[in-house]
Amino acid sequence: MATNTTWVEISRQALKHNVQLFQAMLRRSGSTLMAVVKSNAYGHGISETARITQALGVRWFGVADTKEALFLRKEGIRSRILVLSFIQRDLVAHALKSNISLPVHDYSMALIISRIAVRTRHKANIHIKIDTGTHRLGIAATDALHIVQRILKLPNINLEGFFTHFADSENPDQQFTNKQTAIFNSTIQEMKRNGIISKMCHAACSASTLLNRSSHMNLARVGLSLYGLSPLEKEHLSISHKLRPVLSWKTRIIQVKTVVKGDTIGYGRTFRVKHKMRIATIAVGYWDGYDRKLSNTGRVLVHGAYAPLIGRVCMNVSMVDVTNITSCKAGDEVVLLGSPRRSKYASRGVTAGELARKIGTINYEVVTRINPLLPRIIV
């Protein structure tokens, strides 16, 4: 049996295609691509995807926290890195030394960064977040001028950018996104009238990059769609259809056996055998990130044919019906998510959207929950 029993494959060509698609789109609107690689690059492997995209000319990366940013530096990523969400105070000095741009959500956060910057004799490049209606993180737009003026009086602080985040960007009705954009633009104009100029202004995520050109500004933070997945429920845009999924998730058959009428499969005996059938036990379970709600509802691909899950998804294994796939055996490859490569069945596949619908969630969660300890292999 092969070394890897459960693994993730990352298509270099698909990622390259998507990156170049967004680079071309943003170039037309005078903007620049930020590759968002937070949360292990949405499950795709942060170091693997960052190396590929940096080689394609991506000059900005977005991460969730300082720990992720420093990991990228350790992995040899030299492009600009912006922490988008939060900082770990004990890592700020190292982040400043590593030329990582930091977010500021309020005055107290700026004060912490300033004090550490003074102590370590570094200049802190900051992006100040303006809350335009999402009400998670950021300075309220109505208070922004006064607070920003106080922040910029702090020593060793360099204003590099302003940013905001949209609450309803995936809605085809862009009314609220347009409202947030207007509030953000108005806030930036107020800053300019008071002599406060920033190099960068950014608001767009994947959905607004696809749906709303006015949100592109001079930097667009593209995450999910960089990996070929659409954030839109109705993929009505031509570019959505051009996206190529980057990730395939695979495992192997451990054992094939025959069961007879009356037998039950797995924990809780939730599947009762109605006729003689062949079943395969495969090397994936909920520890790997394969959701337990797929029990008796999911399906996988074996030799290019669909095989339904039977019984409960266990911690480390699951069972599938291979009665009609007579040639399968222990060690054979099983596709959990994605399509077979170099196969006459390549048009068949299991999508993140399909899995999301079956377990009652979104495609973001399906891929980000894949266990980060599973190997990511570039193909």
Would you kindly provide a written description of the structure presented here, covering whatever features stand out?
It comes from Candidatus Kerfeldbacteria bacterium RIFCSPLOWO2_01_FULL_48_11. InterPro entries: Ala_racemase, Ala_racemase/Decarboxylase_C, Ala_racemase_C, Ala_racemase_N, Ala_racemase_pyridoxalP-BS, PLP-binding_barrel. It catalyses: L-alanine = D-alanine. This is Alanine racemase. GO terms for molecular function: alanine racemase activity; pyridoxal phosphate binding. Helices cover 30% and strands 24% of the residues. By secondary structure, the protein is an alpha/beta fold. The strands form four sheets. Strands 1, 11, 14, 15, 16, 17, 18 and 19 form an eight-stranded mixed β-sheet that branches. Strands 5, 6, 7, 8 and 9 form a five-stranded parallel β-sheet that branches. The chain has a four-stranded parallel β-sheet with strand order 4-3-2-10. The protein has helices at 12-28, 38-42, 46-55, 66-74, 92-97, 107-120, 144-151, 175-193, 206-211, 238-242, 352-359, 363-368; strands at residues 6-10, 33-36, 60-65, 80-86, 102-104, 124-131, 139-140, 157-163, 200-202, 220-222, 247-259, 264-265, 271-272, 277-282, 299-302, 305-308, 318-321, 333-337, 376-378. It is elongated, with a radius of gyration of 24 Å. It has two domains: 12-242, TIM Barrel (Alpha-Beta Barrel); 247-350, Lyase, Ornithine Decarboxylase, Chain A, domain 1 (Beta Barrel).
